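pls design
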């Protein structure tokens, strides 16, 4: 399903190569109106932001929105399990869903990363994709509501996903907020020095951020340390 692939890319860290393909994304959404309804209209504020802001501004906004605000985290299980070890077990279960369908997530971020999950859904038949979306919609809707409350155009991506779900989203129990510094203290760095949200297992590894994203995130890291 192209709709899931488009939303997956829209939620990725802004890079010039895929930003240049925004007209193609719009065409892909138009091709699937029977499936996605008015997704093009709903996503218009996000498309406007991405079309009319310069790359550095988009990258800084992305870091501020998703990397600096745990309530907007793009890792699904963080909103359910926080940084507990239950999150690792849940990610293994999700990886098994990927493997059952021959989806290779080994070179990507943690399995519960929303763009990765949506890329996976894009490869499935519509009924299977919607069933799995329904399993995740409670978290997806919660992220969307928080983004909307903060006036972020990224909220529209989550609203489209919630509208597509065959399951009505239920409210989540809020989890304690943990940031990257706390995760580093608890789990330690990976052997390659990459900062994890969890100590990675053979089934769940984190790749290093793009250099431009690390640079955008770096200036505030020490200042934003939470006690």
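designed seq:
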């Amino acid at each position: 399903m192209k709709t899931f692939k488009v939303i997956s890319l829209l939620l990725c860290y802004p890079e010039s190569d895929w930003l240049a393909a925004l007209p193609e994304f719009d065409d892909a959404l138009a091709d699937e109106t029977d499936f996605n309804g008015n997704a093009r209209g709903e996503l218009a504020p996000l498309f406007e932001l991405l079309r009319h802001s310069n790359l550095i501004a988009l990258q800084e906004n992305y870091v501020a929105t998703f990397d600096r605000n745990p309530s907007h985290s793009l890792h699904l299980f963080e909103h359910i399990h926080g940084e507990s070890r239950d999150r690792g077990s849940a990610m293994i279960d999700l990886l098994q869903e990927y493997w059952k369908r021959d989806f290779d997530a080994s070179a990507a971020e943690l399995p519960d990363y929303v763009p990765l999950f949506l890329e996976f859904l894009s490869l499935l038949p519509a009924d299977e994709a919607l069933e799995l979306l329904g399993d995740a919609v409670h978290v997806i809707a919660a992220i969307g509501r928080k983004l909307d409350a903060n006036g972020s155009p990224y909220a529209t991506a989550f609203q489209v996903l919630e509208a597509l779900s065959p399951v009505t989203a239920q409210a989540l129990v809020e989890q304690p907020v943990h940031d990257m510094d706390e995760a580093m203290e608890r789990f330690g760095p990976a052997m390659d020095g990459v900062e994890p949200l969890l100590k990675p297992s053979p089934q769940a590894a984190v790749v290093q951020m793009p250099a431009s994203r690390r640079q955008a995130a770096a200036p505030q890291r020490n200042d934003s340390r939470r006690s």
